[in-house]
Amino acid sequence: GIVKNGDITIGGIFPVKIMDFATENLFTEKPEPQSCGKFLLQPFLWVQIMIFAIEEINQNQNLLPNITLGYGIYDSYYRCSSSNPLAAIIGEASDKMTIAIATLLRVHNYPQISHATTVDFLSDRQQFPSFFRTIPNGNYRSRSLVKLMQYFGWNWVGTVAEDNEIGELATQDLIQELDKTEICIGFSETIPNVYSAIKIRHVVEVIRRSSVNAIVIISYELFIVPLIAEVTRQNITGKVWVSTEAWSTSASFYKGSQARTVTGTIGVAVHKGDIPGFKEFLLRLNPFTSQDNIYIKNFWEHMFGGSEKLNELNVSFFDASESRITYNVYNGIYAIAHALHDLYMCIPGEGPFENGTCANIHYFEPWQLLHYVKNVHFTNKLGEEIYFDGNGNPPPLYDIINWHRVPDGNLKNVEVGRFNFSAPHGKDFIINNSALMWNGGNTQIPHSICSESCPPGYRKAARRGQPICCFDCILCSEGEITNQTDSIDCLKCPSDHWSSNGRDKCIPKTIEFLSYQEPLGATLASVSILFSLIPAAILCTFVKHRDTPIVKANNRELSYLLLLALMLCFLCSLIFIGQPKISTCMLRQVAFGIIFALCVSCVLAKTIMVVIAFNATKPNSKLKKWVGPKLPNAVVFVCTVIQVIICIAWLSSSPPFPEQNMRSQIQKIIIECNDGSTTAFWLVLGYMGILAIVCFIVAFLARNLPDSFNEAKFITFSMLVFVTVWLSFIPAYLSTKGKYMVAVEIFAILASSTGLMACIFSPKCYIIILRPERNTREYLMGK
Ligand SMILES: *[C@@H]1O[C@H](CO)[C@@H](O)[C@H](O)[C@H]1NC(C)=O
Ligand SMILES: *[C@@H]1O[C@H](CO)[C@@H](O)[C@H](O)[C@H]1NC(C)=O
Ligand SMILES: *[C@@H]1O[C@H](CO)[C@@H](O)[C@H](O)[C@H]1NC(C)=O
Ligand SMILES: *[C@@H]1O[C@H](CO)[C@@H](O)[C@H](O)[C@H]1NC(C)=O
């Protein structure tokens, strides 16, 4: 190792030289011997900063005056044996080594400060009481990455982790954090840490096929290289690689063909510190002046030897401001120095140990220094506060790094934001959107979602066996809406509203009734009025020819009354048109019932008249006294009054009323008359039917009576038409809804009235108008 003696020695363990990773072990032939030949630049920098910091402290008259710090720095892959007493140890970088060392050191309570190990379980105070670190523990990384994903709206992400316990633990921690959010994991793969082309190709195949665009890689830089090489070979672009602090600033990918693949990589990096004076210190390095540094030869070879050319010098090496992990080492050394300083400055009697005693700087026990390390709290040269929490963790700070493509085709990493978990809410996460660059040089944030969000009008429907982020959008059913994106449920519209076609808002239902304005209503109304003129015209004709035999036959007044009633029949259909109100609802069925009862009773009276008139001509007939207007008048009166009584009973018990019917047709509010009592309605109709049937029977029996103008035939016929119309009305009425129900009734009224009118009056009119020569008593009685 690199050893420099002093009053007190600080140990350092760094992996400057490691095993070569590049040869694949195929297990089919004897593997090549592995050598510790690979020199790593970054750990070398950590060694340098340790030396730099200790020298700086030794020159500082305020920190540890009269005490010279020495160091013993060892490579992780070399056995070390040293008789120098140790105060504390800085290291290691690899998790495995750190854990091994921590396990060893806790026996003696040696403080250990790691600058690069993030595994969470090292925060377990029971197991590792003397472990500290100057890098945030892994859980903060997970929380930061999740926050980034949420910020960019990626809810469908993949993870690729190195295939060992460390990768597994970090992935588990990330998944636990993701479980607290609505982000889903599309795939979770591992990359081998023993090179295997087959496994790498498998992972790349998964990445290529998946719709996931945001892929978190949790791995040591070295294992990622073959993965990115294969991704580049297969021309996979458009992915966002989310990096962890382990490779956020790795220059391995910045040049050549891989640069295109990883442009736009974003992730967290260890907080950067610009250590004043360190750059100059590095520039003074020289194999001739730094002979006690065992690594200097390797370093010199690395920088200038082999194919390396001076103009390709790793710029970031000399750009000391790029120091991140290096800065952690620096802070670690200072933490130990400050702890030692506090121990040194202890005033006897006021010390922290038994009876107020202090520790002796020259002969202190490790647990005594441990006490001071736990409580160390100082501001470093950069003005940043350094301390450890109860679990040995530093204030959690991350820089957000984005890989930008520069005009020469290479990449550079750019700091675009920061996580500071100890800052107040709102300042803990800062990101500069306008500084972001994505794969392909785009400035638009890439999507990484399994399903596009559902627009208003649609609801999410989970896909069986798939994560919740993958769903189908299903249009809300009729009468239901959603007015927000990504709704889980559709909301029912209020009962007087209906869903719009897009199902994104409730619209008032259309109101429906048979109105005068619409074609159907207008037609029916004009037909009624037109047809009501016909009985009026017939009436005029009858009055004009009132003294002719054909008019006088079978009770002239009854004919007048029937014609009047028929006129009213046609007109009463007008009450059925227009918006139902209390008055029209009450009037409708009642007027219809009474007028029709009047009509049919007139016809019945006429039929009875025919029968009586015929029989009365026989000698000694008892019916003679019935000839005259009394009987028909009585029949008309009684039959009509019965209907009037039924109607009065109906109106007084449960009168019809207007009603908004929202049930029968979902998209409409039908304004209709509720009959109040359906029984009463059918009673009115039934009574009319009975009258008609009685009339029909009587007329049928009288149809062959020998009278040259026997009305009975026509009445039979008219009643047949009447009954047929109203019998066919029943099923038609019951099977229609809304305004058509009303139209059916109007149609039945018009049809039956027309039938009645045509059958009874057309033969008479024919004779009166076209065959006036037949309109004589002789002709009528003649044959
Ligand atoms: C350091 O040494 C100087 C001279 O030997 C002495 O005057 C001074 O008191 C010492 N400081 C401490 C803190 O022991
Ligand atoms: C990748 O693209 C290059 C040129 O754009 C092409 O030559 C090469 O065949 C492509 N490789 C694959 C695997 O598609
Ligand atoms: C954000 O980034 C843009 C582009 O790099 C830069 O011009 C601007 O100053 C940055 N804003 C802040 C607040 O850092
Ligand atoms: C969505 O509909 C609900 C209930 O109808 C209403 O309270 C809310 O304001 C609507 N939201 C939007 C964004 O229109």
From TrEMBL:
UniProt subcellular location: Cell membrane
One Pfam match: ANF_receptor
Any GO MF annotation of the entry: G protein-coupled receptor activity
Bilayer-crossing regions: 520-540, 560-578, 590-614, 634-652, 680-702, 714-734, 740-761
PROSITE patterns hit by this protein: G_PROTEIN_RECEP_F3_3 (PS00981), G_PROTEIN_RECEP_F3_4 (PS50259)
Keyword terms: Cell membrane, G-protein coupled receptor, Glycoprotein, Membrane, Receptor, Signal, Transducer, Transmembrane, Transmembrane helix
SUPFAM superfamilies: Periplasmic binding protein-like I (SSF53822)
GO CC field: plasma membrane
Domain G-protein coupled receptors family 3 profile: 520-783
Membrane topology reported for the UniProt record: Multi-pass membrane protein
Top-level taxon of origin: Eukaryota
Predominant subcellular localization, coarse grouping: membrane
Family of the protein in this entry: Belongs to the G-protein coupled receptor 3 family.
Name this polypeptide is given: G-protein coupled receptors family 3 profile domain-containing protein
Organism listed in the record: Latimeria chalumnae (Coelacanth)
